[in-house]
């Protein structure tokens, strides 16, 4: 991983990285679907924020004045079905990997997480990642869990809502102690998130911990 961030405050550097993100979107992520990524008023500033943010550029905090977004917080993207939440995170995961960026993260779905739990009876790989470590050392990775809160159901005897809650509790501790990010996407708005996570956590601890996220609404109609 690179030790020094690219200087995206330089317009030429920003332009080059922005073009590379579009190349990844069109020629890698969306190529199997034979469609192109569309930039419009609904996602243009979100793309700019994410490009600054993932390169740890302070200009990220100026893209949406008044929202209080911070470089040290994780990302939570909200929006309706098909607006491109997961797609954005797929694009930036590929971009970060190809630019050798220390903020690279692994994308995963709730179903993938539940499958892992069904096999291993724990969430270790997606939380502390101690399975291949020795002693008391853990090796948490940056991750993005997609579509939280909408797949809460019993899956082969597992309550996916409870597993999601356990994931979020662990990842908050990991963020605090190790500085590793757990980004999220969801179809739920603020009221729905509060209702969903207070239901399973009577103390409201999870709802309070969403304050450690940059909550980004992604507007528009379905792009599918």
**Whole-Å distance between the termini?**
34 Å
SSE succession: HHHEHEHEEEHEHHE
Beta-strand content bin: 5-15%
Shape: globular
Q: What is the CA-based Rg, rounded?
A: 18 Å
How many DSSP helices? 8
Instruction: List unreliable stretches of 5+ residues.
Output: none
Mean pLDDT: 88
Fraction of residues in H or I helices:
40-55%
Number of strands: 7
Strand count, sense and barrel status of the largest sheet are: 5 strands, parallel
Q: Which structural class fits the helix and strand makeup?
A: alpha/beta
What order do the strands of the largest sheet run in, or round the barrel if closed? Answer: 2-3-6-1-7
Assembly annotation: single chain
How would you portray this structure in words?
By secondary structure, this protein is an alpha/beta fold. 42% of the residues lie in helices and 12% in strands. It is globular, with a radius of gyration of 18 Å. The two termini are 34 Å apart.
Question: Quick summary of this structure?
Answer:
The protein has 224 residues and is of the alpha/beta class. It is built from 8 helices and 7 strands; from the N terminus they run αααβαβαβββαβααβ. A 5-stranded parallel β-sheet has the order 2-3-6-1-7, with helices on both faces.
